[in-house]
Amino acid sequence: MKNRTTSIDDHLLASPSQCEERIRVFQRKLYIRAKQDKSFKAFSLYGKLCEDITLIEAYRRVKSNYSKGVGVDGQSFEDIEKQGLKPFLEAIQQDLVQGIYKSKAVKQVLIPKEKKGDFRKLGIPTIRDRVVQMAVKLLIEPLWESEFCKTSYGFRPKRGAKQAIKQVKQNIYDGHQFVYDADLSKYFDTIPHNKLFVLLKKRLVDKGILSLIHQWLTAPVRLPNGKLLASTAGSPQGGVISPLLSNIYLHAFDEIVNDPKGKFARANIRMVRYADDFLLMGKWYFSKDILHYIDRIMDNMGLTLNKEKTKLLHSCRSSLFFLGFEFRNIKSKFGWNTKNYTNVRPSMKSRSKLFTQLRELLSKRRHWRIEWIVWKVNELLIGWLNYFSISKVTHIWETIKIIKKHLDYKLFKWMKSKGRKAHRKLRQRPYANLVHFYGLLDIEKYARLKTHAKAQ
C-alpha cells in the first residue's frame, strides 16, 4: 500500500453529496455490527481513511462546521482553495498511503474567563490536521455510539443541550431533587493518555489509526510567546477529534453510574452529562459513602473535581444552573393551584453575555448603515433564541421583554451617536421602527413561531 499512487477523483470532488451518502452508509453498517456484537473490534479502517470520499467529506465538514482560525502554518481555507483543493487533498492522501503523515504543532490561544487572570486554553491544529482528524472521527465514531449511555448528551449526533435540559427537568418532576452539581477542573488538559488508550483498544485495534491519534495527543503546543511545550496529558480543546476522545474517556464513568447493580443504582441516582459537566440527581441526601466513592473514581481516572464549583443542592430550595439555564422552584400564579412547579429560563449569566455582545456590536460599528446593523443583530438574536427556546420546557417570555427594553435603549444610543436628522423619527421607538421598516427580528414573534413549530 505504501507504493500506491493516489489521485482525488474529480467527479467525487464536484459532488460532495455523493461522498456524504456513501460515508453515512458505511457508518450505519459499522454501527449495526458494533451494536450487535459487543466484543467487535475494528482492525482495518486505515484503508478507508485513505479513500477519496472520506477525505472530501472530511474537508467539507471541517470547513462548514468548525472554526476558521489558522494553525501554526498560517494556512486558511481561502489559501487552500486559491492554490487548489485537489492538490491539497492529494498531498494528504499520498502521505497517509505512504505512511509518512506527521502532525504539526498545535497553536494555543488563550480565551479570558470571567475570573480575572484566568484563561481557557484553546488548541488550534492546522487545517491539514483537522481534515485528517475529521476523517478518523467519521470512521471510528459509530463504534462508540453503539455503546454510549443515554445519559450522555454532549458532542454526539442528534443529541445536544436541549435534550439534556429536558431530562434534568423530567428528573426533578420524578422526585430526583437532590443534586450533585459537578465541575471537573481542566478536564481536556488532564486526560491521561495511557488510560485513554486502554479504553480505545477495547473497540479499535487498527495500528494505523491508533498511531494517528497518538500523534495528535502528543503534538507539541506552540505557546503565544512562540515557545514549544511538550504535551504529556490531555486532548487539545479545539481539535476536531477531542470531543469524541473526551466522551470515550468519561464513558467509563457513565457505565459505573448506570450499572443496574452498582452503588448509584441502589441509591436511586440518575445522571445527566454534557461533555465534562455532569449532574447526579437522587431522591435522598447524598451519603458520605457515595461522595467518597465519587472522589475515588475520579482519582482512579486521574481527574480532579473543582471543589469550589462542585456543590450539593436541593432543586426546591435553591436554583440549579446547568448549560446556561436556571432551574428554579416557584409557586403557581393561579390561586386555585397551590402546587409549586419547576421554572426553566435562561440564566442571568447567559442574558448578560448577550447584552455584552450587543453592546460590543453597536459601540464598535457607529459608522455602519442601518441595514448592516440589522443584519448583524438578527444573526446574534436568532442564534441565542435557537438555543434557549425549548418547546414545553423553557419559559423565556419575561427574558424576552427584558431583552427588548435593553435593545431599544442600545439602538437609541447608537442612532443618537450617528447624529443624523434622518434618524430622529426612528429614535422615538427604535426597536419597533426597525422591526417595521428595516426587517429587524421580532424576537417575541420568532420565539412563539419556533415554540409552536417544535410542539407540532
From TrEMBL:
Read off the PANTHER family from this record: NUCLEAR INTRON MATURASE 1, MITOCHONDRIAL-RELATED, PROTEIN YKFC
Q: Respond yes or no to whether keyword Nucleotidyltransferase is given for this record.
A: yes
Entry superkingdom? Bacteria
Protein family (similarity comment): Belongs to the bacterial reverse transcriptase family.
Protein known as: Group II intron reverse transcriptase/maturase
Q: Which InterPro entries match?
A: DNA/RNA_pol_sf, Group_II_RT_mat, GrpII_Intron_Splice-Mob/Def, Mat_intron_G2, RT_dom
Please tell me which top-level EC class this enzyme sits in: transferase
Looking at the record, the residues that make up the Reverse transcriptase domain are: 92-327
Q: What keywords are assigned to this protein?
A: Nucleotidyltransferase, RNA-directed DNA polymerase, Transferase
